[in-house]
Structures are given as structure tokens and as C-alpha cells.
Design goal:
five-stranded parallel β-sheet; Rossmann fold; single chain; 17% strand; binds iron/sulfur cluster; alpha/beta; 2 domains; 331 residues; 11 strands; 12 helices; six-stranded antiparallel β-sheet
Length: 331
């Protein structure tokens, strides 16, 4: 079969599958632009993969467009049409969201199809046949997604039918094994890819419970509130008031750097203990509970807990020791 020249956009995660999938299309003489997504919810591993995605694109010799999912992604997480996975991960909506963005890039770039590294049955939520079909349809890319690793298990896509992509050179992989992908990276001497596994922070149960609490309790949350979820210990003191405290010296310093009105910074005056940052009410009762939490983690035994309170104006205040069920307040 003779091939028509083609241009494609490929989702590059920095992982093995998308690197191999893209290579299989490049081998057919088709030009490819990579797209990589970042977000506020990138895990440490995702961030490493982001750096790897740049290297993957370099090794493949393709340009890479990096897109931040931005504030509209937060709206999506609050109310995903297709629901959540085990935690706060709205994987189906997230895939649709990314592919809709990729569709716009495809049009901008004058490309005629999209490449993904999807493998049928590899992931429980987003890589089952029905879900893959749903995601394809809802992203407006019906017939325009080529999945080089699993293509033979799907009906031919439009570029395959049009002879732009040679279906004969694509694979029919399914399941979790990566043996074939590994053989291919060896064959093509590819090195710039991360090992598989892991999800974004939304798949993490601890992060998810903090995020759920934020969505439920703070209508006016900001990007900073979300960034704060990735470190420290978090406490819901009462409806509308939250305390974050540092777990070590570095986190205490970060809290100090992040502090700005309307947050209130709490610093131990007469004992060694964590710093804290409050968002919400600052009445005496609330501050007393917060002071006792700081005292608890600072192993402060005295009957008075003295803190410097900075809400734009610094002052030193003494609080009485009271019984606080610290674990119950912990998010
Ligand atoms: S794991 Fe996170 S980034 Fe990946 S599809 Fe699910 S929600 Fe999106």
C-alpha cells in the first residue's frame, strides 16, 4: 500500500507507552508534534515525567507543546460528568478534557489525527474498550485517534482507512505487560522514557481527602489553598476555619514564605514547635484550639502557650492549655 504524507499530534506523557507509540508512527515517515500536560495536581513522579517528556521529544526529534490544564480543570474536578475513580481522580473526564485541547492543537498544527499510547485493558478506569470509545466520541475525535500499541484490537481509524497510516505496522497489544514495548525501545535504542506506573495527586487517598474537605468547606478557595494541600498537617478547626502546620523546619520556612493576608501566621514564642497558618475565623476560641495543636506537636507542657500572631500586624498572645482531640480535627 502506498502512503499519503501525514501530520499528527501525539500525547507525550514522558512514559514508555507514548514514546513507543509515537516512534511507530514516526517510522512511517509521518511528522509528529508532541503535547504534554501539566497541572497543579502533578505528583512528584508526574513532575519528573514532565522533564522526561522534554527528553523523549528531543530523542524522537519532534517539537513539544506543554500545556497547563489551568483553572477550568479545577472546575472539572469539582463536578466530573463521569464521576471519580477510587479517589478524587476523574480519569474519564480528564482524558476527554486533554483530548479536547489536543484536538484544538491538531487543527492549529494542520495535523489530521492524534496518537495516544493507550493499551487496551491496561488501566482499570480509562483504558477499557467502552470507556476508550466514550472518551473518543466526547472529545470530538471520533475516528481520528490512532493507538499504535493496540490498533489491531480496534476498528481502523480514518487515517488508517485513508492510507495515511499503515495499519499493518501497528500492534495489537492488551493488558499490563510491557514486554513488547521494552523490546521496541531496545530495537530503536530509545533511552528517554520513565518506567510505567503511578497517577497524579488526585489518585492519592490522603491528598484526595484534603481536597474533598477544601471543596466542601471553602467556597472561595484559591490556587494557593490547593498548593498548600501538598505539604504539612491539616486540621479543620471548625466550619470555615482551617489550620496547616509544618512537619519540619523546611515546611515551617515554606509556610512563612507563603504567608500573606488573609491567612494568619502562628509562630511559637516560648517553645520549639511548628509554625501554623490559619485561613478563616480568628476569634479567641479558634486561636486557642490552634495554639493547643501547635503546643501538642511542639510537646509543650506548660499551662500557657505563647504565640506570635501575624495577620498583617504582629502581636504576641498567651493562650490557656485546653483539651483538644487533635486526631479528630486532622483532615
Ligand atoms: S490519573 Fe490523574 S492525570 Fe491521569 S487521567 Fe486520571 S485524573 Fe487525569
Amino acid at each position: 500500500m502506498s502512503h499519503k504524507p501525514g501530520k499528527a499530534v501525539s500525547l507525550i506523557s514522558g512514559g514508555l507507552d507514548s514514546a513507543v507509540a509515537t516512534k511507530l508512527i514516526l517510522e512511517q515517515g509521518i511528522s509528529v508534534t508532541g503535547v504534554h500536560f501539566t497541572s497543579l495536581f502533578a505528583s512528584k513522579r508526574d513532575k519528573e515525567r514532565g522533564l522526561q517528556a522534554v527528553r523523549t521529544a528531543g530523542e524522537l526529534g519532534i517539537p513539544l507543546i506543554v500545556i497547563d490544564k489551568g483553572p477550568e480543570y479545577i472546575e472539572l474536578i469539582k463536578n466530573p460528568r463521569y464521576g471519580y475513580g477510587k479517589n478524587m481522580n476523574p480519569c474519564i473526564d480528564c482524558r476527554i478534557f486533554m483530548l479536547q485541547k489536543v484536538r484544538a492543537i491538531m487543527e492549529q498544527e494542520g495535523a489530521s489525527f492524534v496518537i495516544t499510547g493507550e493499551v487496551l485493558g491496561q488501566r482499570p478506569m480509562s483504558q477499557q474498550r467502552d470507556t476508550i470509545n466514550l472518551i473518543e466520541k466526547r472529545s470530538g475525535l471520533k475516528g481520528l485517534i490512532v493507538r499504535p500499541l493496540s490498533a489491531k484490537l480496534f476498528s481502523p481509524s480514518e487515517p488508517e482507512e485513508a492510507g495515511i497510516v499503515d495499519r499493518g505496522q501497528l500492534l495489537g497489544l492488551s493488558g499490563r505487560s510491557r514486554t513488547t514495548q521494552q523490546e521496541l525501545v531496545d530495537k530503536y535504542h530509545m533511552k528517554a522514557y520513565s518506567s510505567p506506573g503511578g497517577g497524579c495527586l488526585l489518585t492519592d487517598p490522603i491528598f484526595s481527602s484534603k481536597l474533598r474537605d477544601l471543596f466542601n468547606d471553602d467556597r472561595d478557595f484559591t490556587i494557593k489553598d490547593i498548593e498548600l494541600l501538598t505539604f504539612g498537617r491539616h486540621f479543620r478547626i471548625n466550619h470555615g476555619t482551617k489550620l496547616v502546620i509544618g512537619r519540619n523546619q523546611k515546611e515551617n520556612e515554606t509556610l512563612e514564605t507563603l504567608w500573606a493576608v488573609p491567612y494568619i501566621l502562628l509562630s511559637p514564642e516560648d517553645f520549639k514547635g511548628p509554625k501554623g497558618m490559619i485561613k478563616g475565623r480568628a476569634d479567641r476560641e479558634t486561636l486557642t484550639v490552634a495554639a493547643n495543636i501547635l503546643g501538642f506537636y511542639g510537646k509543650h507542657d506548660a499551662q500557657q502557650i505563647t504565640l506570635e500572631i501575624n495577620n498583617g500586624t504582629r502581636k504576641t498572645v498567651c493562650f490557656e492549655k485546653i483539651d483538644v482531640d487533635v486526631e479528630r480535627l486532622r483532615i
